Amino acid sequence: MLSRQFARAAAGVTPRAGLRALSSTAARLDAHTPSMGDVNPSRAAVDTFNQKQKAFREHLVEAQKEREARRTAEVKEPEPSRKAGPLTNLIYGTKEGRELDAQLEASFSQVLARGKYVHSIVFHEVKPEKVDEYVDLVGHWYPKMANALENKVHLVGSWRTEVGDCDTFVHIWEYQKYEGYHQSRHSITHHPEFAEFDRKLKGMINSKNISLMQEFSFWPTTPPRQLGGVFELRSYTLHPGNLLEWETHWRRGLKARREVMEGVGAWFVQVGDLNTVHHLWQFANLEERRARREQSWQVEGWSDTVHKTVPLIQSMKSRVLIPMPWSPVA
């Protein structure tokens, strides 16, 4: 797992016990609703994006090295030595066999996911005439809930849909397992200001959709970062029974994509819109998105991933997103 401690260290905040280190969420301070017009399309802006991306990745590498060094320093109890032979293997099984048994004991979700975190993805379809009021309301409430120590939750990010189902806002939250989700929901619901927030929110939206997800084990959700640019949320509805095969192919394909594109995270739905997978990417602008996607085809392994995963898809959807001012990932 990629460490997120450097994000907290930079902000001078101590991580909550048992939770992945994420930076605090800033409250909304302006009255402007972000749009594509706020994204600078210049070459200089692209260079700035690339520089921030490079620095961010270098931080992650250093954090990973520190974590691995701590692991190496830990004293692990060695497995009892047994003389290899037919009788020993019959009684205890081979080492490979014991490892396979341990894997088979894990649930289907544990094979796919790291299991330590549960994420929710929330879609709010906002009434067009209420967009600015909605941004003001949520821009104050969400950071307050994300920063409250009694809530076992972090806000990964908040975005407005620019291309796709417009005036739909997307929010991704991170909880410490399902226990953290339930405790956080209970705590937030009993907050003295929740009833008023909920009453106002209901008057601003046409619909709300929530799914509970887990991140794929091979693609940890990014820690907070401010690279700028635009995001693309790609949502895939798979034919039932194909999730494990999808994970197998994408585990290889992501290596190719990471060479030219900046991923935010990948999740599969466990409760809600089942058989759905969400991938979130970040680009300096839409032209860079086009160029990076074309470059992917030049990387060995990517065409094979596409060839093997397309038959697994029932339907797919793409949204271009603009981050909100309070979004930790922007």
UniProtKB/TrEMBL annotation:
GO biological process: mitophagy
Record-annotated NIPSNAP domain positions: 125-217, 231-328
Bias type Basic and acidic residues, positions: 66-82
InterPro entries: Dimeric_a/b-barrel, NIPSNAP, NipSnap_domain
One Pfam family named in its UniProt record: NIPSNAP
Region Disordered, annotated ranges: 66-88
GO cellular component, one term: mitochondrion
Annotated family: Belongs to the NipSnap family.
Protein name: NIPSNAP domain-containing protein
Organism expressing this protein natively: Fusarium oligoseptatum
Lineage of source species: Eukaryota, Fungi, Dikarya, Ascomycota, Pezizomycotina
